[in-house]
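Okay, any thoughts on this one?
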Amino acid sequence: MSIQSPPTLLELAGCILLSDKSRAILDLEDLLTELFPSLFVEAFSRGHTEVLKKMVQAWPFTCLPLGALMRKPQLEMLRVALDGLDMLLAQQDHPRLKIFGKPTGHNRKVLRLLQLDSVQKVEVHCTWAPSTLAAYAPFLGQMRNLRKLLVSQVRMPAHTSPEEQEWLLSQLPSQFLRMDCLRKFCVDAVLPLEGHLEHVLRHLKTPLVALSITNCPLSDSDWNNLSQCPNTSQLRHLDLRYIKLTNFSPEPLKILLETDASTLNRLDMEACEIADSQLQAILPALSRCSQLRTLCFFWNHISMSFLRNLLCHTARLSQLSRELYPTPLESYDAQVPHYQWLHIVPRMSTQSPPTLLELAGQSLLSNKSRAILDLEDLPIELFPPLFVEAFSRGHTEVLKKKAWPFTCLPLGALIRKPQLEMI
């Protein structure tokens, strides 16, 4: 009699994720890459047709293991997988186009050979001068089905005249008028954006679902116009990391949160240098963001009294499952550098639907001995939910194992759960 091998941690995670099919379908975009193969096999074996079809369309690898599934003669599920491939091809969902390094004439020759109207994602990761970006802008205008555009590291040469600067900055936004499908717009360290954000957003043809402006200087007019643009009225993800907001009025952000209250599910304001008084002003609007699932405020100056007030407001948000805050200023030792410790605070309220990572953590702890043995093979993204689950359930041996892969432990977050024995 053969002895069946126990399931791996990833296989266990796949099993628990499929226990809620509708949630698995909704959260595929946020699913760990490592979980795709095990979840795919589980969906195939259990006959979860809708999950399987969506997984084929969201598959993050270059190969799909259909051949390996021939050992399991389920023709109906093979047909579903092939249907998913047909839908993928019908959408012309080509791999994202990434540009690294210094742009060259060779790059432009390659772009002329591509079927650009089928490209859906473009990421530019290199230091560009605006003149170079202007030269590439017509190619972007041909990407009529582009859904996501990320541009990073753009700097204006010191010798550029004001007239030339205005002309260069008009080239990219003018191409937005040809993009009927652009829903995600991300800029990082685009220094010439200062004073021109309203001009950029005004040329968008469709409302955005994701807006990310990071590491960019903004003017007062940029900040004030952010909430007045019709294309920011349906945001699901707003990312303002490393935007210095110290001297800005909180009113535009308050208005933007009120406008997006029914759609916003992620707000990231890491290292915005925002003060308690500014945050206090946006709390009523923040507490009305009923779909919010992730909230990040770390690397900001936050006092203990404000943190308590903030937690009282966010406690009303039933969908909120992950909150990230800095340690309050009062808790710093005089000899400890600011922001050395971060809090990762998963909300364990029974009213909140668990995230996929939390579900995976719950599944892994159903077999404590196996969880201990396999910690070294655990994807690092699963450590935080597993740690909180182990703490909450009193799994001392799992908690004690020295395998934590990060530079800090979220002990501060556990103050909400005063179990001194576990601490």
Summary: The first strand starts at residue 97 and ends at 100. The two ends are 45 Å apart (CA to CA). The chain has a mean pLDDT of 75.
